[in-house]
Amino acid sequence: MLRPFRGVRFAVDDPAKVTSPPYDLISNGDAHTLLDSHPNNVVRLILPAPPPSDAPIEHVRQLPEAPQPTDATNTDTTPNRPQGSAPSPSRYSEARNTLLAWLKSGVLVRDEQPALYVYEQRGQDVLQRGLIGDVGLTDPAQRIILPHEDVLPGPITDRLALMSTTQANLEPIFLLYNGDHGAATTLVDEVAATRPPLITAHTEDDLTHRLWCITDQAEIDAINADLHPRQALIADGHHRYATYRVLQRQQHLTQTTAASAEPQPTTAPPTAAQPTTAPPAPAEQTIPPASEDTPRTDALKPGPSRRESSPWDFGLALLVDSTTYAPNLQAIHRVIPDLPLEEAVARARGSWRVHDHGDLEHGLAALGAVGEPAFLLAGEEGVHLITDPDPVQLALAMPADHSDRWNSLNTSILTEFVLPKVWGLEDNEQTVRIVHHDAQAAARLAITTGGTAVILKPLAMNDVLAVAAGGERVPRKSTSFGPKPRTGLVLRTFATD
């Protein structure tokens, strides 16, 4: 189910200047650029309490250490997470106070009617349209919303503190579904072609963003009828989706505890068989896992619950029909600081074939021409392509409890074989830095950190879908789907939902 909600939108002359990329793609320099562009940029909400412009990066993106969430499947991490002491919880209070101040002053305005929002991103060789709404948070056993990527606890703790304190979803997750050019997609295209937009914003990445609202109940019903039998894949926002689920469980637990403490009305004096308080409210109903023979007719529709739906039973999401608007799936590269390229290559020679290349351009061409698995290593001393791993060593390294398809992914081989067995390293935030898409940027970072860049080819869409459908997760930071929704075009607050 995609439920309409009363969107919260910026009332400014140039809406592009108050938007930002998703929070986990914003560097220290990006944050200051965004803040310089407009005093009310949404980065003040999603990454509150930035430092003065001359402060080191550690003080911008510092996230708190925290215990593991109660559900091990709902954990995640942010790329390039800096080290140091945990920031004060006041940074989340600052985001809440800023949000409330902007609502009070009219910088942010709530829409009068609940709506689903048609969202378009358009640029050179780019066109993506979808629907923004409240997606129902169902039991994972129903396999309605499919995660595909591993996650870790740090950023969940951060996003949970932010959502709980602000009582808001400040940016949507990104979901893909096989819409088969159905009624929902037809209506999305009709709205974009025939109705005036609420917002038009041209951002610095040369994309034009437009937003429309759908408030007609018949149209909303038609959309949900089309979505009813479908599944969705999380393309971007695994941390935030996991946070939605943790927040939902916490709120249900709070409700259950409160209900168990309430006196039960009686018409007669209590007896030994008639307690003076009501029994605890039942726990969230567990829905049995769907078997392979069970038709998934409840996809994108919340499962049955003994509770009335509450704001935390939904999460802000952009839903895109991937059959009509095929996503752009790009690679995420790694940089291992303090592992000199010469040492990385020397260690790789014991299990991989190494090909030397004069520069990054020739190395990238060679990487694109060979089959998987292959990695391009770059750093101060040059560029080297590694291919054809020793099959015995590779087989021994890959986990027997994963599928052959999972074990063949380049990110799986990097995580399970190259990092721990070849280089003796653990794949964690302290050891491995993340660079989205840009091989040149990865090589530059490797040089400045005295390390090695590991440049990968993108995973195949079919492999990602197959792994997710089989109930597995690819290693963390394996995929980067685009174009990602712009943050700040429409927000969701629990108070108006």
Give a brief description:
This is DUF1015 domain-containing protein. By secondary structure, this protein is α+β, with helices and mostly antiparallel strands.
Write the layout of secondary structure elements.
Blueprint: E1 2-3, E2 8-10, H1 28-37, H2 43-46, H3 90-105, E3 108-110, E4 116-123, E5 126-136, E6 145-146, H4 153-166, E7 168-169, E8 173-177, H5 183-194, E9 199-202, E10 208-214, H6 217-227, E11 232-236, H7 238-261, E12 314-321, E13 328-330, E14 332-336, H8 341-348, E15 353-357, H9 360-369, E16 374-379, E17 382-387, H10 391-397, H11 404-408, H12 410-422, E18 433-436, H13 439-448, E19 452-455, H14 461-469, E20 480-482, E21 492-493
Helix pairs in contact: 3-4, 4-7, 5-6
Task: Report on the architecture of this protein.
The protein has 2 domains: 2-247 and 312-328 and 482-496, no CATH class; 332-457, no CATH class. The protein is built from 14 helices and 21 strands. It has helices at residues 28-37, 43-46, 90-105, 153-166, 183-194, 217-227, 238-261, 341-348, 360-369, 391-397, 404-408, 410-422, 439-448, 461-469; strands at 2-3, 8-10, 108-110, 116-123, 126-136, 145-146, 168-169, 173-177, 199-202, 208-214, 232-236, 314-321, 328-330, 332-336, 353-357, 374-379, 382-387, 433-436, 452-455, 480-482, 492-493. Strands 1, 4, 5, 6, 8, 9, 10, 11 and 12 form a 9-stranded mixed β-sheet that branches. Strands 15-17-16-19-14-18 form a 6-stranded antiparallel β-sheet, sandwiched between helices. Helix 3 (90-105) packs parallel to helix 4 (153-166) and helix 4 (153-166) crosses helix 7. The longest helix has 24 residues, at 238-261.
